[in-house]
């Protein structure tokens, strides 16, 4: 099993414990927030194309519904574990709190490498997973969405399967295809939100975004759109990577060319003028902004002292360990945390859910305007909290403070403590 999945829950707990101790949080609220309220593990038998039966493990964790239904993506990856899904659901609760969304956290996953399945096998597995978790999801219960290796096509199969069992409830899932009630702007939202946060932060730090050098680890949904929007803002993307390795060009990589190379199955290595670079070396490149946009636990005590970026913008969930956070703080490297930086995705998911429930749909321009307004408001709240605790806190701690204030008030108002 890979190091990213095993360390995630430890990291989520360490972050929460640290902020609870800093805030002298009521121990009962701390204890409630440490554990998901509900975890489901399912075994899914699937008939493969060759007639054999294979069993897949699946999970769904709903962390906290004090403020509203659970909300969060579904991940397909061979390293998925229950603990990793728990951690990701904990982070979702705090992310929704930072953005002031009427949700708690949820997350799901299947232990599978989807690249090893045919399209028909993938569809059968997806539908069977939804049948298995159907009792615990719902428009007002827990609302899944895409995450690593899942996309609108998969959300389309999922919503169809759920509706067959439970009747029309298109808002049970977000990140759907537009024709099934998906929202304009959702596919690009995580990367767009990341670019907005980077722009706001660089402005506060007095770093000009024009020609700022950006390195991106992970060139999937979050990473590629972050690259595209940062490039549009004038930044220079000097290195990108995916699970097949990285490429580097100090003159700049055009994100559109990179997307074209991936669409044509040529790989990022085919982009003109680039040199190969390992994922490890890529993280240690000198740059203004490093955007980890792949998996958890990429920057740890083993490499934190070698990072040369001025800013780390966490497009991925949990890419920096707690020990690394401390080293980076000491070295003056600013980390803008996942629960703020990558919240554009869940924000537009919320817009999708609202549009489904109203049956009234917004243009891409309206969605993007609302997204920008929400991200900037969240950034300002976190930044002000950070400024108020300048000597004692990081941006991550400030983001937790914004979120915990809201959660604690809801938990008390509901009479749980
Ligand atoms: N899709 C979304 O809306 C959101 C995603 N995120 C987070 O962003 C991160 C990426 O998710 P997506 O872009 O959706 O997934 P994706 O499946 O679209 O892309 C993941 C990318 O990471 C690459 N990758 C995997 N292992 C790698 C490694 N060791 N080194 C370098 N690259 C590697 C893959 O090849 C792929 O390019 C995850 O942490 C996810 O939880 C966070 C918020 C929302
Ligand atoms: O769009 C959503 O509901 C959640 C996206 C997600 O899984 C995340 O923010 O990590």
From TrEMBL:
Q: What is the originating organism of this protein?
A: Entomomonas moraniae
Identify this protein by name: Glutamate dehydrogenase
Signal peptide positions (record)? none
> Reaction catalysed by this chain?
L-glutamate + NADP(+) + H2O = 2-oxoglutarate + NH4(+) + NADPH + H(+)
What GO molecular-function term can you cite, just one?
Answer: glutamate dehydrogenase (NADP+) activity
Stored Pfam families: ELFV_dehydrog, ELFV_dehydrog_N
Q: Which family does it belong to?
A: Belongs to the Glu/Leu/Phe/Val dehydrogenases family.
The Glutamate/phenylalanine/leucine/valine/L-tryptophan dehydrogenase C-terminal domain covers: 183-415
